[in-house]
Amino acid sequence: MVGAGAGMIACVALAWGSATLSAAPQDGALPPAWSPPALPDADGRAQVTEVNVNRLSGVCSAWLANGVRVHHRFMKEDPGRVVVTINVAGGELLETAAGRGITHAAVVAWRWPAARSASRAQVAEFLKGRDLRVEGRTWADGMMLRVSGPVGELEAGLRLARVLLLEPAIEARALEDWKRAEADRAERRGREGREMIQEAMSDLVFPAAEVRARPATAEMIRRIKLDGQGGAQAWLDERLRTGPIEASIVGDVPLAEALRLAGACLGSLPERPRVSATTYADKRKVERPAGPVKAWRAAHGGGPEGERGRGAIKGYVVAGFFGADVKDLDDHRALAVGARIVQTRLNQRLRAGDAPDAGGDGVAKAIPATVYPGFGMVLAAAGVETGQTDKTLALVEEVLREMSQEESGPTEEEVRAAGAHREEGAERYLTDLRFWGGQLASSTYHGYPPDEISRAASVYREMTPARVMSAMKKYDVPAGRIGLMVEPGKEVEPR
After folding, report:
1. 397-408: b or e for each residue (b if 16 or more CB lie within 10 Å)?
2. Which tens digits make up the pLDDT trace of 57-74?
3. How many Å apart are CA 400 and CA 7, to the nearest integer?
4. Bridge partners of residue 135, in order along the sequence
5. What percent of the chain has pLDDT above 90?
6. What pTM, to 2 d.p., does this model score?
């Protein structure tokens, strides 16, 4: 059930549709040779107007004259390699019901890279033989273009990135392929218990009219058009022309060279507002329900076999409470340690048979709010075999409540073990170029300084039972509690 639980938490985190798509095969003869034009400014450092150094993390953060934010971190953990991450703020955050899903459609221009001056086949031919990887993804509040590869190919990669930022083209065939696959996926969603968790949680905590917190339906996807007013191409062009941009260059490249190339590539884009933690603040205001909120949802069909050799999973329970925003990192980290302890205790109780109907192991996580303030969550989930979810939900809720009580709160030993687990994860991520690239390219936007990334391991190492209990008490209050049961034959019935 570990895999199933992790999937549920991922759904709750609204991380749908972020997978990278590979280029589709091309038919016909070899396309005419094409190469992205040279960067316009030989010394892009002239575009750099402000620089500050974050001493703990070693990150240099700069502003370019056109309002683009750029971060650099020198890393030799992957010798000779570099990762460039470019985030354009907005995306799904700016969508309406009439255009839900259009950001995912727009990013087809990066997932299957093409430009007005070069077809998908020509771009693919340019990349052939080069150790360059181009990725396009969407987040709930932005779009990401990433180019990674050897340092020797960095300038070529940025030349291509500049073309994809200035004149991207969504090819009709690529869009239709995406629409067909995504509509089919949308129609399948909800047929199994695990697949329903995302929609059920969204229905539970977000207003009914808030389409941005829910995946696009098959009908929404099919009505997306390519051209004209309201089309995916126009949406992409407008986002890239006006959207605030935050980027990072991470890897085995010196600061001077990184700033030169960033200035030449990103500094030549149209002027735009500087990104900040208040960017699109008016679009982030969503009313949170007064809790406790609890609901049932019908499940159709069974799930996977339980990990301990028991029967198929037929239902799921999720319990928790609204947690911290990403700007409140100290609270979030204390909640993350608390969630790890909850997971350990929950699995001990499940294995002891305290909930006879439970199947497999449970999982618990703390998820900070990065898009909609107030919607961070601490959630614990478990599967059930018989569809009788009440006892299992009661157990999960009991384990959560223990963490706020003096007589049953976290012990020194538990905090030490959970903190060590989180510290190990933080240390592992700190050597990952892609992790740093993604974190830095949204740090100003999401309101946390780069040094906070480096501080994570020491915070977990120094965590105390009192700090964990304090955070759990602060957020685990009746008005913020959440409960969800997914079981066969039950209709949605909020209470």
Report:
1. bbbbebbbeeee
2. 999 999 999 999 999 999
3. 20
4. 146
5. 74
6. 0.88
The pLDDT-based confidence of 29 (bands split at 50, 70, 90) is: low
Judge contact between 56 and 459, C-beta under 8 A: no
Q: Return the number of other C-beta atoms located less than 10 Å from residue 287's C-beta.
A: 10
How is residue 117 written in tokens?
């001056």
Side-by-side strand order, sheet with 69-74: 48-54, 59-64, 69-74, 245-251, 81-89, 142-150, 133-139
Assign 487 a pLDDT band (cuts: 50, 70, 90).
confident
25 sits in which H/E element: none
| Helix/strand/coil (H/E/C) assignment for every residue in the chain | CHHHHHHHHHHHCCCCCCCCCCCCCCCCCCCCCCCCCCCCCCCHHHHEEEEEEECCCCEEEEEECCCCEEEEEECCCCCCEEEEEEEEECHHHHCCHHHCCHHHHHCHHHHCCCECCECHHHHHHHHCCCCCEEEEEEECCEEEEEEEEEHHHHHHHHHHHHHHHHCECCCHHHHHHHHHHHHHHHHHCCCCHHHHHHHHHHHHHCCCCCHHHCCCCHHHHHCCCCCCCCCHHHHHHHHHHHCCEEEEEEECCCHHHHHHHHHHHHHHCCCCCCCCCCCCHHHHCCCCCCCCEEEEEEECCCCCECCCCCCECCEEEEEEEEECECCCHHHHHHHHHHHHHHHHHHHHHHHCCCCCCEEEEEEEEEECECCCCCCEEEEEEEEECCCCCHHHHHHHHHHHHHCCCCCCCCCHHHHHHHHHHHHHHHHHHCCCHHHHHHHHCCHHHHCCCHHHHHHHHHHHHCCCHHHHHHHHHHHCCHHHEEEEEEEECCCCCCC
Among all chains, which residue has been given the structure tokens 């990349």? 127
491 or 136, which is more confident: 136
Of residues 400, 396, 414, 425, the one with CA closest to residue 467:
414
Q: How many CB atoms lie within 10 A of CB 221?
A: 24
From CA 354, how far away is CA 397, in angstroms rounded? 13
Confidence of residue 28 (pLDDT cuts 50, 70, 90): low
- Rounded to a whole number of angstroms, the CA Rg of the chain reads 24
DSSP state string for 111-131 = HTT-BTTB-HHHHHHHHTTS-
pLDDT tens by residue, 329-357: 999 999 999 999 999 999 999 888 877 66
Which secondary structure element, helix H or strand E, spans residue 483, and what is its range? strand 481-488
C-alpha dist (Å) from residue 417 to 9, 333, 423, 458: 22, 14, 10, 14
- Taking the CA atoms of residue 270, residue 275, residue 279 and residue 280 in that order, the dihedral angle to the nearest 10 degrees is 40
Neighbours of 489 (CB within 10 A): 10
